[in-house]
């Protein structure tokens, strides 16, 4: 599995919002995602979501962020940007399609509900192939 997080904000940059997601490294399919802060607790929630869904992870590919080092066993954890290129590409796709995810923009979400809903709908439409009318 590849795991990564993507930063955005609600109202102002002082209110960060993180999109966490996990991708099957072999197939490129998104397995799970959630919104939260960039903390160990958020990553624990993501791992719990995977466990509740019956997803068994035999290998983790992540970047160098400390929550991964704190919570993943070293024997199944591989660190390096060379293994997370696919999920990073998905970040770029979302930034291109949704202005509120662009790093320098005048478009932003005014509420957490709208932020998570808009991004969640696009993820469901693009990666889970749900018939969401956008």
**Could you say which overall geometry the principal axes of the C-alpha atoms support?**
globular
Largest sheet: 3 strands, antiparallel
What count of helical segments does DSSP give? 4
Give the strand content: 25-35%
Strand order of the largest sheet: 1-2-3
> How do the SSEs run, as a string of H and E?
EEEHEHEHH
Structural class determined from secondary elements: alpha+beta
Write structural notes for this entry.
It is built from four helices and five strands, in the order βββαβαβαα. With 134 residues, it is of the alpha+beta class. It has a three-stranded antiparallel sheet, sandwiched between helices. Strands 4-5 form a two-stranded parallel ribbon. The longest helix has 16 residues, at 112-127. The mean pLDDT is 83.
Give a brief rundown of this model:
This protein is an alpha+beta fold.
Secondary structure layout:
Blueprint: E1 2-10, E2 12-23, E3 30-36, H1 40-52, E4 60-62, H2 66-71, E5 77-79, H3 85-97, H4 112-127
Parallel strand pairs: 4-5
Antiparallel strand pairs: 1-2, 2-3
């Amino acid at each position: 599995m590849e795991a990564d997080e993507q930063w955005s904000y609600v109202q102002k940059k002082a209110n960060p919002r993180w999109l966490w997601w996990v991708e099957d490294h072999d197939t490129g399919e998104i397995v799970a995602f959630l919104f939260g802060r960039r903390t160990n607790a958020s990553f624990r929630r993501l791992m719990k979501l995977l466990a509740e869904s019956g997803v068994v992870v035999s290998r983790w590919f992540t970047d160098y962020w400390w929550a991964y080092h704190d919570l993943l066993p070293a024997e199944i954890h591989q660190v390096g940007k060379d293994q997370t290129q696919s999920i990073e590409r998905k970040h770029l796709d979302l930034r291109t399609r949704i202005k509120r995810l662009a790093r320098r923009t005048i478009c932003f979400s005014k509420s957490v509900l709208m932020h998570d809903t808009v991004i969640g709908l696009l993820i469901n439409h693009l990666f889970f192939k749900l018939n969401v009318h956008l």
